[in-house]
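Example record for the data management plan.
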Amino acid sequence: MPDEASELTGLCEREPFDYKEIWNVTPEQAEIVSKWTESYLKKNELDLPFLSSGQVSVQYIGFTTDDDKFIYGNVFPNTHLNNQTHIPITTCMRSKSFWAFKYSVKSMKFISLELNN
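Corresponding structural encoding:
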């Protein structure tokens, strides 16, 4: 998916991000980030569906800047599953089921959360 991932930078009302390189996130990295993000949502009492709810899926994109590596998660409802591993889900529908997050690999911290509403 790295070739198609550039479509997700600055999607809708989300903050665009610059990158030098896009890379594939490993299943192990996706699992770690997924657990961390879900924990963050619960801890901060954010009312957003995540993987354990069974309502949404996530596309993970790795990207590199001058000084860090990040994992970008594009969250969307399971009703949009067609070719979700190869085609970016790019919708501007206003719903709490469409959102994104950015995670720093270097600092192992959640950098941002962006909603489509």
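Summary line stored alongside the record: The chain has a mean pLDDT of 76.
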